[in-house]
Amino acid sequence: MNYKLVFHILGLILRVEAALMLPATMIAFATGGGDGMAFLLSAGITVAAGQALTMLPGKNAKMQARDGFAAVALSWIVLSLFGALPYVFSGVLPNYADAFFETVSGFTTTGATVFTFIEGQPLGVLFWRAQTQWMGGVGVLVMALALVPKLGEGSVFLMRAESPGPIKSKLTPRIGDTAKILYSIYIGLTVAEAVCLRIAGMPWFDAIIHAFTSISTGGFSVKDASIAAYNSLAIEWIIIVFMFLSGINFALLFYAIRRNFKAVFQSEELRSYTFMVLVASGLIVLNLVVHAGWAFNARTVTDSVFQVVTLMTTTGYMTYDYVKWPTFSQVILILVMFAGGCAGSTAGGIKQIRVTLLIKNLHREVEQILHPRVVKTLRSDGERVEESTLSGITLFFFAYILLLLIGTLVVAWDDVGFTSAFTASLTCISNVGPAFDVLGPTSNFAMLSNVSKVVLSTGMLLGRLEIMPLLLLLFPGLWRRR
Asked: Is the pTM of this model over 0.85?
């Protein structure tokens, strides 16, 4: 590994994080919440650590794949370690395990929380909490590439290691330009949603916070009752639209802006994503009307669509406590949590393209058994899918299920019941947020032990980085100096 280069990137990321603590610092001092000095001290420590890392001696050579994967994995860990400091220094989460859990949940846009009284927290803390999700939405390294694009030709490895999905694509020949395009779309969606929410009646602070956390598909709210607190169909449908858009591959949004609608409509993943949202929502509406006695009206349709979209895009807001819904509806919600949104979006989960290709591969294997002499290649959007890509998807799915079960086993030690343990592990590795049963949308994760919180935090990081970059840190071969 090229330690000098990796340390330089870590130092750069920490300095970016310190700079991004300043808005929360100003809000804290302006509102007199008592958390201003905590943010100031946190920013000072973070920038000092970043400066120290960039000054470490060593050979600064060209970046290779292993350096990129190590830099991405270590950056997310270091960001979370330092991002937890404002919670600890302000006293809102004095237990560092709680603060680390909340910070990882923010940066990975998971949305699981240990706060028991959100509305009573200082505004600076609430802003930082939402801003961590906005920072982690497209990716912190992508943000660094947009701000400081001159990281060398090897910066492509940073983009590949951090960007979700099995198939990577560049919108432009230069990685820095691609990063700027992604963040331009990201910022544009954020501003548009904040304005729409304000017009719909949300206060400006609330509108900005919810724009941050829905475009990033994070789900942190400033209300204990989440979006249900506003009791507004207009607000809920605005959030539904922007969550849905944020679950689409940003490359397709770029093509739509450039009026290349042919590329948009050819996307099998987008069709699969839209189809699953419509079918899941329709089945839940039917189940609520037939089995739960709900009236078929705007509120029933809105609650159903909202919960499907918020869990499928792994945002995790709430308009109704879905734990009270019939079992059939709850199972559908668990299935969409597995599937997630599109690759190249801010959503988590397995991703629609992986689900689609796994189904296609299963169909191909069955045909191969029936017709052994027929050789069939799989295609996605008209392009041939390499066998190495299919192998990688299969390995990812196996690792995903294995880590899900390990997380379930650890949380089960806290004796919260199987449903709670399983869905807590699922919601963290899929970066969704709320779980089911006693860890449902009206509850929080504060009741869990520190061990469970650290393991679930690890699960969030594994899910956000799509497992491999973090697992590579465990292999001794990665750490050999070049």
From this structure: yes
